[in-house]
Amino acid sequence: MIIYDFKYDAQDIARRVDPRSSTARGGATVALPVTPGKIIAVHLSYESRAAQRGRKPAHPSYFFKPLSSLAASGGTVERPAGTELLAFEGEIALVIGDPARWVGVDDAWNHVAAVTAANDLGLYDLRANDKGSNVRNKGGDGYTPIGPELIDATDLDPAGIRVRAWVNGALRQDDTSAGMFFSLAQLVADLSQHFTLQRGDVILTGTPAGSSVVVPGDVVEIEVDVPSTGATSGRLTTTVTQGEHPFDEKIGSLPSIDDLQREEAWGSREAAGLPPETIPERAQRDEGLDPSLRAKLLEAPTAGLSSQLRKRGLHSCFIDGLTANIPGTKIVGSAKTLRFVPAREDLFKSHGGGYNAQKRAFDAVGEGEIIVIEARGDASTGTLGDILALRAKTRGAAGVVTDGGVRDFDAVAEIGLPVFSKGAHPSVLGRKHVPWEFDVTIGCGGATVQPGDVIVGDGDGVIVIPAHLAEEVADAALAQEDEDAWIAEQVAAGHPVDGLFPMNAEWRARYESQERA
Q1: Domain count, the chain
Q2: pLDDT at 178 over 90
Q3: Which residues pair with 97 in a beta bridge?
Q4: pTM (predicted TM-score)
Q5: What is the distance of C-alpha 74 from the center of its chain?
Q6: Torsion of CA 81, 87, 90, 96, to 10 degrees
Q7: SS3 of 426, please?
């Protein structure tokens, strides 16, 4: 087994077998290629994976994996009893040579001694319980196979590294570091701003599209190579086995999955055996509003928009009883819905804590979206506070609409996130609500809101526009605004409103004649 000896200079790939890097597999001793002090993994870094997930972060984010998750090539990994969504992720692993602290992007690659293959396995059944930290769903024994060989990083083009993955011999992933929107050097430089990267530390740099679920009996192979030179890590092989020990509900949270977890674990709704989304499809939601439509809606008042909706037979488009936390605010965006159900102690225990639906919705809101919360019109408790408002603001949300209360009301206003609500209330969520689900049809302030509906709010209130009518309604409202402005000029000139507002045939002819002129 080829091993990098970190006693040597970072640019010198010395080889030895390190007994500290050995694990027993079926009575045989196999060596790991590194003995890191820490393992840092990147959440999302490839264009192909971001397109698959429908979101692209502005900055890299990370999580730690325990050293006990390390495994060597040729080993096995258990899928725990009572779970179904164990997924592989082929990744390029960086091994640090010279310690890195406060290094720039231009110098960062000089601190990388080697690259190799890694499999960042994850159990999506536990993802909702601690997403972000990934302690349980990414930290299991054997969840970080690495190796088998190291590739010297000296003179290596960091944009020319390829990663491929096979399951039972079928190619599932094939991408290169050129397809990353955060470069390998940027990841090293960024991490070095926060703590020292020590010799031997490993950075898992994210996975491209193609990651999917594996089941007991499957054999996963990952290879990292450099096509321009032929250098390769060799194939990192892991066999999935069935675990016998179920999780104990008396000790901690149990595995829990929904269609979102199934979709993201398998890579697509089709692969997961799920029917297509209908109201509306996720891709359509994540694209957001067209900039030109957004500009029209920002110009059109809600009063004019609601008039046009009524002309089209939609009379229940108002989210009633809400006011803006920032006077003079106008919000425009597509709806991302969140539903609370009435408080019940046993349901709050199972759904209120941990990475609940409320937190997941605020973590998943996209740029230009508006989180719309169903709180059944109960203003006697908060439905969000300053931390979640900051999260929404950071992700580029256009605002929040809730028919409940808001905690930390002044702090939320200072953050600058527009919120339309029933007012301030200091109480925590569990007093009246259980966060139940998001991205579903809800009722807010007397109006039905579906994911992807267009939300517009100003000093007159908040309205809901079906997405397919938004352009038509916006154009008609702006045309009506021009007409109303002309009528106002006539009234200011001394004409009576009778026959002018609304215009009779004579006034209509005069208006249209002026318009043509």
Answers
A1: 2
A2: yes
A3: none
A4: 0.56
A5: 33
A6: -60
A7: coil
